[in-house]
């Protein structure tokens, strides 16, 4: 019943990849900062956006911050957008590793403008909170396709469409808080 924030980058994103679609499937409004960098060996802090390509079909709304100021602003606004009852899916804020993460840049933080929404209320969620008997969480315990479980599979398929619809409903909030989108993918 609290706000959740986490961050990852590079190989850490790949190690955690299994959980990202589960966040969207369970409709949890997690905010995650992704510091995109090379996924290679030996260790690299050079920028690379391959992680963004991997994340495109996970159900997470994705923002890309090009500056430290963008990163700061988008992270605060990501909570507002993710927690809207008509959206209620995770938001990932992506920033270029090295250029944003390992260089110095001034960030304007005006105390008068810092204002988070009221404390997160999990009971405003459009779906039951982690209810093992109802979608979407039921799909975490049931096999996807079994002859005896066709109804559950049909519910799973319709739920995937609901995640896409929730991302579409996020557009009006993105426009309000971030000034709109440059590119979208359908």
From TrEMBL:
InterPro entries: Pyruvate:ferred/Flavod_OxRd, Pyrv_Fd/Flavodoxin_OxRdtase_N, THDP-binding. Keywords: Oxidoreductase, Pyruvate. GO terms for biological process: response to oxidative stress. The keyword Oxidoreductase applies. One of its GO terms (molecular function) is magnesium ion binding. SUPFAM superfamilies: Thiamin diphosphate-binding fold (THDP-binding) (SSF52518). The keyword Oxidoreductase applies. Residues 1-163 form the Pyruvate flavodoxin/ferredoxin oxidoreductase pyrimidine binding domain. Belongs to the pyruvate:ferredoxin/flavodoxin oxidoreductase family. PANTHER family: PYRUVATE-FLAVODOXIN OXIDOREDUCTASE-RELATED. This is Pyruvate ferredoxin oxidoreductase alpha subunit. The lineage of its organism: Bacteria, Bacillati, Actinomycetota, Actinomycetota incertae sedis, Candidatus Hakubellales.
């Amino acid at each position: 019943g609290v706000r959740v924030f986490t961050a990852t980058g590079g190989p850490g994103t790949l190690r955690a990849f299994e959980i990202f679609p589960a966040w969207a499937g369970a409709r949890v409004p997690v905010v995650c900062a992704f510091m995109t960098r090379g996924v290679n060996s030996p260790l690299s802090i050079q920028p690379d956006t391959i992680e963004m390509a991997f994340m495109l079909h996970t159900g997470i709304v994705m923002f890309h911050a090009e500056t430290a100021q963008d990163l700061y602003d988008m992270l605060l606004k990501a909570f507002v957008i993710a927690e809207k009852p008509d959206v209620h899916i995770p938001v990932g804020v992506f920033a270029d590793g090295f250029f944003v993460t390992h260089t110095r840049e001034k960030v304007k933080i005006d105390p008068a403008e810092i204002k988070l929404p009221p404390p997160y209320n999990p009971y405003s969620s459009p779906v039951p909170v982690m209810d093992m008997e109802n979608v979407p969480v039921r799909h975490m315990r049931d096999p996807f396709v079994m002859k005896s479980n066709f109804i559950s599979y049909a519910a799973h398929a319709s739920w995937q469409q609901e995640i896409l619809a929730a991302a579409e409903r996020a557009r009006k909030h993105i426009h309000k808080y971030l000034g709109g989108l440059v590119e979208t993918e359908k």
